[in-house]
Fold each of these.
Amino acid sequence: MSVDMLTAFALEIVKIFLTVYLKVQLFIKYMGLVQLALALLVLTSASSARKTSNQLISLHEENWTEIMKGEWMVEFHAPWCPACKDLQKAWNAFADWSKDLNIRVGEVDVTVNPGLSGRFLVTALPTIYHVKDGVFRVYSGPRDKNDFITFIEDKRWRNIDPVPDYKHPNSKQMAVVAVFFKLSMAVRDLHNHLVEVKGVPSWASYSLFAGVTLALGCILGFFIVLIIDQVFPTGAKKTAAAAAKKEAKKDSNGSVKKSEESKKKENSGSPKSSAETKKTK
C-alpha cells in the first residue's frame, strides 16, 4: 500500500470522525434546547398554578367569623394535597367572578389553621363550604369554575341540607373541638422538634407523650371523682346522712305525738272540772 493511499485513508477516517463529532454536538445542543424549553414550560405552569386571584380571601383564626355575614364559598386545602392543587386554578378563576356574583370567595390552609380544621370537621381535602348568613352547607358537586358559578346563580344550595346545630362551626362544642385540634398539632410539632432538632429517638418521644397523657388522665380522673363524691356522696357519708335524716324525722314524729297526748289530757280533764263546779253549787 502506497503512502498516498494511506494518507487518503487517514483523511477519510478523520473526515468521518469530524462528521460524527459535529452531529453529536448538534444532538447535544438540540437536547439542551429541548430540556431548557421543558424546564421553562414547567416553571411557567407552576407559576400560573400558584397565581392567586386578587379576589380570593385568605381566612384564618382571627378573621374567619367574617363569613357569618353575607354569602361565601370557602375552600379548605393543604399544600401537599394533589387534589387541592388540581382545584386551585378553577378556584382562582371562580374567585375572579365573585364581584359579579355578589359573593365572597375564601380559602383556608389547614396546615396553618388546625383549629379551623377541627371547628369545621374537615375530614377530607379539599372541602368546600357554602355559607349564607351564618347557615353552613357542604358543597359536594362538580368542581369546575362554571359549575361553581351555576351553583350560585341558580341558588342550588337550597337543595342541600344545612349543617345541624350541634355541628355549627360557631357553637361552643365545636370551639372545644377546635382547641383539641390545636393541641394535637402542637403535640405533633413538639414531637418533630424533639426528633429532628434535639435528636431524641422516636420511641423515646412517644413514650414521653404516653407517660404525660397517663399522668394527666390520672390527675383529671382524681379531681372528677372528688367533685362527684362531694356532689353525690356515697358509702359512709351517704349512710350517715340518711341516719341523721331518719333521726330528725323520728324526733319530729315524737314531738308531734307528745303534743297530741297533752291535748288529749287537757280535753279529758276539762269536763271533770265543770262537773265538780256544779256539785259545789
Amino acid sequence: MLYETDANNNIAAEYTWDALGRPVTMTKGGVTYYYHVNGHGDIVALTDASGNVVAQYQYDAWGNILSKAGALATANPYRYAGYYYDEETGLYYLMARYYDANVGRFITRDTFHGFENEPQSLNQYAYTKNNPVMYVDPNGNYAWIVLSFLSGGANATWQMVWDFYKKYKFNRSAWINKFDWKKFGKLFVTGGLIGIYGRGITSYMTKSQIAKAGQFAWDVTYAAKEYILLQVAGGDPITWSGLVDAIWNKAKGYLDFLKKLK
C-alpha cells in the first residue's frame, strides 16, 4: 500500500517501502515517521525525524500484541512481521487471507491442498507450518515462493547475461559456444533459492532435494538459452523481464518442489 485516503478522497497517510517489501516511512499530517524493524520483520517502534518514539510494540511468537504505547501506536497499521493489522477485528491482513494471532490460524483455507506425505501441510488453516519463530507468510499462500525464486534467480544472473550481451550483441555463435550456460544455471537456481530462504538454504536441503535442484538448474538453463537464442536470431533485445517470462513455465513445473522445501 502506497497511501490511504479519507471519505473525501484526500490522502490521509503515505508509505514507502524497501526492496524487501518492509515499510520504511509513514507520512501523516505532513510529518514523516520512521519504522524500526527487528530480525523477524516485526515493527517494534516508530520514531519521528528527531528520534522521538511515537509508537512502540511488543508481541508474542504468534503475533499477539502484548503491549503498545505512544501517540501513534493505534494509528500505525503495520505491526507483527510487517503485516497490516485491523484494529476493529484484531486480525492481520496477509493479502490472500486474514490471520488470527489469537488461535495461530488463518480464518479461511489455503488454496494449496498440501502433500500426502507431509501431514502439517494438509491443515489448510495452519500458519507457517506452526513455526512462527522461523517463518513468515507475507501473502497468505504459497504463490510468493515462485515469484521470489524468479526474482532471486534473475537478479543473480542478469549482470552475467547483460555483460555478455554488450560484448557480443546478436552473435549467435558466441552465445552458443562462449556463454557459460552451466554457470548460468547454477547461479540462477542458487540465487532463486537464496531469494526464498536466505543463504542458509543448503542446510535445509536433503540429498534428493539437492539432486532435484540440479535438474531444475538444467531446465532453467534450457529455457533461458532458448529465449536468448531466439532474441539473437531475430535481432531483438534481451531484457530482464523477457528472461523471467521465458523461465516462468519451467518454474511453475517445479512449484511442488519449492513448496516441499518450505
Amino acid sequence: MLNAFIIAAFSFASVSFIFSFWTKNNCFFRFGALCILIFAVAVFSGNKQITFFLYAILSVYILKTELDNAIYFYLVLLPVFPLAVSWSIGLPGIDVLIILNHNRVLLLCLFGPLFLRLLGRGIPVIDPAKSYSGVADRLILFYIFIECFTHFRDDNSLVAARNSILVFIDIWLPYFVISRSIKNVDTALVVVVYTAAMLAVLSIIEEKVFYRIYDAITLPMGEPFKLMKLRGGKLRTFASMNNPLVLGFFFALSFLVAVKIRSLLRCPIYVPLFLGALIILGVEASGSRSPLAANFIGFLVLIWWFFGRQFVKKTATYAFIFFILFLVWFFSGGIDLVLQLDNEQGTFYYRYELILNSMHLIKENLLFGSSPAIFLQDPILMNSIQGEGIIDVTNTYLFLMLKSGIFSLLAFLGIWLTVLRGLYVVETPEHTASILMSVSISTMFMLFICSPILFVPAYFWILIALSIGLIRRYSGGVIATSQAKNLIQRSL
C-alpha cells in the first residue's frame, strides 16, 4: 500500500510540476497537492467519512472563490480518485434515500451549493426556447422525465423516488452548474488533459510492472480486489476507473484536446506531440480498441475543420453518399465478408447478432421500452450471452431503446445534434468549438460501440455541459436565423 501511494504521489507531483511550467500557472501544482492529500487521508485513515469531511471543507473554500474553480476542482478530482468507491453517510434514513459514490459526493459538495447560488442570482432554470441552450435544456429535462418514468414503472415507490433523485444529481446538477457558470472553457479542457496525463503515466507503470496501483489504494477503504483482465498476454489497466473501457473512453476524450492544446496554451509543438503520445500509450495500456477508432473519427473532424467549413459541407455530402452505398453493399452480401474477416473474439459479429436478437423486443416495446430485468431474460436475447455469462449490450443507443423506448433515444440524439449544430455555427477564438465538436462526434461514435457502464455517462454529460456553456458565452445561445430576417432587422 505504501509503495502504491509513493508511486501515485510521485506521478501526480511530476505531472503537476510539468503543467505548471508549461502554463505558467501554479494552480496545476495545487491540484496535484490536493489529490495527494486526499489520497493520503483516504488510504492511511481507511475512513470514507473523513474524506467526505475534506470535500465539505473544500466546498466552503469554493464558495468564496470564482465559480470556475469549482469546475476545475471537479474535473481534476473526478478521474484521479477511485471512482468505484461507494460512500455511506452513516445515517440510516439518509442512506435509504440516496446511494452515494465518489462522483455524487463531489457533485453535492462542489456543485450543490453553487446550484443554489446560481438560483439565488436569478439565473433561469431553463433558457429561452429560441436558443441552443434552451433547446438542450428542454431535451435534457424530457430525457430525465422519461428516465424517472421508467424507474416508477420498474421499481416500488421508495426505490423509484430515490433513483429519480439520483438521475437529477447525475445529469441536471452538473449540466446546469457547468453550462451556466463556466467562463473559460479552454482552461477546463487543459485541466482534462492534465488529469489524463496523470492517469496515463500510472497506467503505463501498471502495465510494465504488472501491478494495479489503485487496487492497493482502494483495499483499505473496503473495496474488494478486482480480478485481473488480460488481452494478448498483457494486463489491461484500470487506474481509477475500475474498468479498462471507461479508462480508454476518458483517454479518447482527452487525446483530441491534447492534439489541439497548442492553440490553447500557445506552447511549443513538442507539447501536443508528447501529450498525444502519452495518452495513446495509456489507451494501449488499457487494452481498449474502441477509443482508437473514436480518436480516428474525431481526428478527421479536426482535419476537415482545418480546411474550412465549406470543405466540411462538401466532404459531408460525399461521406453521406459513400455511407448510403456502403449500406447497400453491406446488406447485399458485404456483411458475409466482414464476418469472415472478424477476429477470433467475434468483436463485430457479437454486436451484429446483438442488434438482430433485440429487434423483436424493440418492436414489442417501441415507445417506453421494458425493464432490464425483463429484456435481459428474453430467450432470444439470451443467445447473445458472452463467455462471462452476461449479455453485454455494447451499444448505448440500443440499450436506451430497450430500456426506455424511442422517446428516450430521440431526446438523447436530439441533445447531441443540438450541441453539434451550436458548435458548428458559433465563432470562438483558439478553435475551441472545433475541439469540442470533434470530441462530441468521437463520443457519439464510441457510444455506438460500447455500453454505458460505470462512469461513462458522467463524462459525456460533462462534455455536453461544457459545449452548451461555450455556445451560451459566444453566441448568446441564439439560434441562427435566415439572412432575409437579418436584413429586415437591420433595416428596422
Amino acid sequence: MRLSDERDFTKKCLHNSNFDLYSAPASGGILKNCLLYAAWIDKLTGLTDRLEKNFKNLDEFYEELIEQHLDPNKPKSIEGDLLDILLQLKKEKSTSIDLTLEDIKAILMNVLLAGSDTSAAAIIWAMTTLIKNPKVMKKVQEEIRRSVGKKDGILNEDDIQNLPYFKAVIKESFRLYPSVPLLIPRESMEKSTLEGYEIQTGTIIHVNAWAIARDPEIWENPEKFIPERFLNNNIDFKGQDFEFIPFGAGRRGCPGIALGVASMELASSNLLYAFDWELPRGMKKEDINTDAKRGLTTHKKNDLCLRIIYRFMQTILLCGSRTSIVSQLNSLLSARTMFSCLMSFVF
C-alpha cells in the first residue's frame, strides 16, 4: 500500500523531521531505567526541549497533510493512499472504534518513524553487505533477472515468491543488521525466576536481538555474510525461531512485519533487477565502513556511496544519506514514476 505519491510529502517530511534526534533517547533509555533520577540529564542538555520542538513540528506537518487530503478541490488519485483510506474509515465510522484525527496522526507517525526509517536502514545495510560480497551480488541478480526476464515495469510480490536465494539474502542481512537491535523494551508483569535469576515485577527488560543473531553457539561463522544458511529451512520473520527475531516475538512482536518485509523485498529486488552496482573508482570493498550509529534504529555511521549503472542508461554516482539518496533516485528515475513512488516510501 502506498503512503503517498506526492513528491513533496517525503521531501518535506524527511527535511522537517530529525530522525536521528527521535532515535537519540534509545541510547540513554537504559541509563534512565537504571538510575531513577537520570531523566534530568536530558533536560539539562537540552535534548528534551529539542524533542518537544521536533514533535510539535511533526504534528503541524501531519495537520497540514490531513487538510490537503480533506480539500474538496484537490484531485483524488484513482487508488487512494493510506491517508485517504484512514479518512474514509473515519467518515464512514466503519471501524470498531471511533477513529479520530489524533488517532490518524498517530498511525501516520508509526508508519513514518517505525516503518519508513527502519526500512530505509534495512535496505542500505542490504546493499552494503552485497557490495562487500560481489559473488553474492552477482548470484542474486542472476536469479532475479533469470526468473523475471526482461520485464517492462517493476517486480511485484508474486515475482518475489519465486526468488528463494534473494529471500535468503534479505534474511541474512536482517540477521547481521536488525533494524532495531534492542527491540522494544518489555516490562515483567509478575515476579518470576529465570535461569536462577529472580525478576521482580515491573522490571524493564531489553532483548538484544543483535547479540542473539551473532551468537557463535547458535550460528556458524556468525560474523560472515552467508545467505545459504537460510536455504532449505523454515526460519522466518514471525518470531517462532528465537535465534532470529529481527521483528521481535510473541504478542508484543512488531505489528508491521508484513509491511516491513514487503517494502524491503520490493525495493531491494527492484534495485538489483534494474541496476548494476559498483564502488566508486579507486575504492575497494575493504574500505567500506560497517560501523553502526548508536540509537533506536541501526543506521550506518558513514554514508554508503556507490556507482549505479542503469541497465539501459549511463553510469551515475549515488552517494549520501537516506535523505539525499531518495532525492537522487527520484531525479534519476523520472522515466520510471512507479519506481520513484516506491523509493519515496522506503528511503
